[in-house]
Specification:
A hairpin with a 4-residue loop joins β2 and β3. Strands 6-8-9-10-7-11 form a 6-stranded mixed sheet, with helices on both faces. The protein has 13 helices and 11 strands. About 30% of the residues are buried. The chain binds adenosine-5'-triphosphate and magnesium ion (MG).
Amino acid sequence: MEDEQIREFHEKLSERIALLEDKNDKLVEASRRIEGEKRYVESELLRLQKEVKRLRAELERLKTPPLIIGNIRDILADGRVVVKSSTGPDFIVNTAEYIAKENIQTGARVALNKQTLAVMGVLPPSLDPIVIGAEIIEKPDMAYEDVGGLDKEIIEIREAVEDPLLRPELYKKVGIDPPKGVLLIGPPGTGKTLLAKAVAHQTNATFIRLVGSELVQKYIGEGARLVRELFQMAREKAPSIVFIDELDSIGAKRLDMATSGDREVQRTLMQFLAELDGFNPIGNVRIIGATNRPDILDEALMRPGRFDRIIAIPVPNFEARCEIFKIHTHRMNLAEGIDFEAMAKEADGATGADIKAMVTEAGMFAIRDNRDYVTMADFEKAVDKVFGESLTRQKEPGVMYA
Ligand SMILES: Nc1ncnc2c1ncn2[C@@H]1O[C@H](COP(=O)(O)OP(=O)(O)OP(=O)(O)O)[C@@H](O)[C@H]1O
Ligand SMILES: [Mg+2]
């Protein structure tokens, strides 16, 4: 009997054990799961804390007062410096400790605390956005073949620009300095800008194009600084060709009677002359200027040692016009019987730009007629149309060409 009881008890016990073991397994699993969740939540917390920190820092950054840009004028024996900010007088200020001493040099561009004007950091020297924005075409895709009727002028500009860049030994052997600058003069639309681009193409040089009027700035001294930075960039990117288009906007004659604006332009011009004098003619920076108002240029620009090679770009003659017509039509779908010579004869007095406009107009007439080829009649109409417009333009007085 006792045996029976014991066995029953035993059975119940093992049943219970099995139950408990099962329960235990489930609990262990649950605990593992919760453990995992906890770890996840903890890492999430860490992530969010980091995010909060980042946002706080960002907020802090946005709240910091602006820094003033200034220049170091002088460094005093006690370690303080004299700074000049864009406005007002010079100040003697302290510098932040974390700035390396060797970076603190006279002339350095620095950031100043707004309240104390203490130097908070040294900035890299700036190239002005205008200089950066100056058209740097690594390699313009215009070639000499795209310039019509200027064979003599091409030879001249090659001698003056290409040879010093590509074959400096020629000049060294003979013992002369090549001309420093080349000035292209001629009526509007005769291909001055085009020619300069073709030269840059041929020499594989960096082509830096700046229009003179961009150098005329609002604040005193800005224009001169731009000129300096322009030449600095040209030297860094050498071999390079600096092409200053519409040179007359800074190169006009200096007059005794002048407004303060004129004086600023003159300052820019003087900086330009100084840069011209400063660089080595055999160096690999070449300058080309272009203007359609040579009559108003300051004589100082043209004296030997500056723009000493003047190339006059003429209005194209008959043969040149033929050639320019061919250049601008060679990608066009032309009908039979196009007579370039008749067109060139018709377009007497037209410049390269006029001819380009005529060719475009002719194409427009064809499109208007729903044709995909251009006929002689289109060209005749186009010549008349453009010519009518440009004749009125050419009547404007006062323009002289050498
Ligand atoms: N000799 C030429 N051969 C081929 N195309 C020409 C020639 N001259 C002018 N052109 C055409 O006319 C356009 C304008 O010429 P370009 O810009 O060189 O004139 P420019 O002499 O610099 O005039 P501006 O004095 O007004 O600056 C050129 O893009 C080109 O398509
Ligand atoms: Mg031009």
